[in-house]
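Field guide to reading this record: the first block holds the primary sequence, the second block holds the structure written as discrete tokens, and the final block holds curator observations. Each block starts with its own label. This record concerns Carboxypeptidase regulatory-like domain-containing protein, catalogued under organism Chroogloeocystis siderophila 5.2 s.c.1.

BLOCK 1 — SEQUENCE
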Amino acid sequence: MNFKWKIIIPFAFLSVFGSSASAIAHGVRMQARETQAIEVNAEYDTGEPMAQAQVTVYAPNDPATPWLEGTTDKNGNFIFTPDSSQPGNWSVQVRQAGHGSIVNIPVEGNQAPTEGNGTAVPATNTPRIASSESANFTPLQLILMGAAGVWGFIGTALFFMRGNKSNSELRRSESQNG
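BLOCK 2 — STRUCTURE
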């Protein structure tokens, strides 16, 4: 085996499989808790909060048009009060630097729930929690990304080796002619 390949191949494997798995493994965890308002907390799967992330809230009657836009605070929190006249699933999307997730939060209308005989039942004060978590990369995805990285290093090395051969052949032919 050529000396160059003995150096290039270990560096290619180390650079792709050694450090890339921990650097690219960003998932997103979100939790929403209903109190008097809706509180959304967004963080990466490493536990780091998604500070200053873009937040878009969609109302149930028009899920294509943003109802509210904003950003999370430094702890990844965002609080809003949904319009109680629009019961249904409110969608909250949080995005930052290519990472993000959506959580659907069921909101009841402003009418108190009733029992079978029509009398109003006091609402329970138990907070409901909706959560969403995006998946990390699967092992197959990691292997494919690593193989693509190795193939990129090998292709780059072959490209530069081809350039050296053609230059040396050109010099050799010039020295023979001149």
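BLOCK 3 — OBSERVATIONS
The helical segments are 3-18, 20-24, 139-177.
The radius of gyration is 28 Å.
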